[in-house]
Write a structure and sequence with these properties.
Layout lengths: L9 H17 L7 H14 L5 H8 L4 H14 L10 H7 L7 H7 L7 H38 L6 H27 L4 H48 L12 H15 L6 H5 L3 H25 L2 E3 L2 E3 L3
Antiparallel strand pairs: 1-2
Length: 318
């Protein structure tokens, strides 16, 4: 097995033979040479033909596939950190379930070398339980914020009492003016001038009522948008890093959360026509430059999204 490997080049045979010799030598003192043996496994795994890995481990290191996997995982995670040297195989394996990013803090707070394997296992479990509890609290806060946002979205805006009273009084005045116009019309020609005056006053009042109705509608829309923007921001804050998405992995959920947070912040912009109409040209230009930046980002992101991988080649559009 160590001198003849199927479907490998001459160079690969030489390399794998060397790795096999290292594995047999290092296996004799695994606690001292665990990192070196894990490195050998990591390199050999790439060279051993498919389906022969388990037999290679048995012939050259007398370890199970599971043990080799744990050793390689520990090597990749802790091998470059001197804090983990000399802990031994059992304790090192017990450290593997630690949440990513908590390793150094754990080693600073615990004298792992002086602890028993069981004590290390219990301490790691406590850290995992605390991390999970924090995730659960953040997820609960996010769900509560989303629930409040949904309730606010379905709740009709509160109309100020003073606007309601003014609208009601204006409508009552219109009805009174109509009655008066009708009475004057019945008096004959001598009341025609007064009738025309009252008709014009009535028309002006009706226009004022329409304008008040439009103003009230706009205020209701602004109030609804303001409530939604506030709740979107609260929801985004509550989300925090509950899902703990790694910085180098932009998942669809993480992207959706970021888009909702961005839209929640600038959702009012398409409705700012009145504000923009009074801006100077230089102020508008600042908004325009920022919009061009967003549009360029969206265009580049779309191109990246359309990239395909065919026969080992990345195909993308310029």
């Amino acid at each position: 097995m160590t001198t003849e490997l199927a479907n490998t080049s001459g160079q690969s045979i030489s390399v794998i033979d060397g790795l096999a010799l290292q594995a047999r030598a290092l296996r004799l003192s695994i606690n001292v040479n665990m990192w070196q043996l894990a490195r050998v496994f990591t390199e050999a795994k790439e060279l051993v033909p498919h389906g022969e890995w388990e037999q290679w481990l048995k012939d050259n290191a007398d370890v199970s596939v599971r043990t080799a996997q744990d050793m390689m995982a520990a090597y990749k995670r802790f091998g470059d950190n001197p804090q983990f040297d000399g802990l031994g195989q059992a304790k090192t394996f017990k450290l593997l379930p630690l949440p990513a990013g908590t390793e150094e803090k754990f080693m600073e707070e615990h004298d792992v070398a002086a602890m028993s394997t069981r004590e290390v296992q219990e301490a790691v479990k406590k850290v995992r339980d605390e991390a999970q509890a924090e995730i659960d609290r953040e997820r609960k806060a996010r769900l509560e914020a989303e629930r409040r946002a949904e309730e606010a979205e379905n709740r009709p805006p509160v109309i100020p009492d003073e606007l309601t009273d003014e609208l009601r009084a204006s409508k009552e005045t219109i009805e009174q003016q109509k009655i008066e116009v009708q009475r004057l019309a019945e008096l004959g020609n001598e009341a025609l001038a007064e009738q025309r005056r009252l008709s014009k006053e009535n028309a002006d009042l009706q226009r004022e009522v329409r304008e008040r109705d439009e103003m009230l509608t706009e205020q209701q829309e602004d109030l609804s948008r303001a409530q939604q923007e506030l709740l979107n921001v609260q929801s985004a804050i509550a989300k925090g890093d509950a899902e703990r998405v790694p910085a180098d992995q932009l998942t669809a959920d993480a992207f959706a959360s970021a888009v909702r947070a961005f839209i929640g912040t600038v959702a009012r912009m398409p409705h700012m026509r009145m504000v923009f109409s009074t801006m100077s040209l230089s102020e508008k230009q600042e908004y325009s430059v920022l919009l061009e930046t967003v549009e360029k980002w969206a265009e580049d992101s779309r191109k990246a999204l359309e990239t395909t991988y065919v026969d080992g080649t990345v195909i993308y559009h310029e």
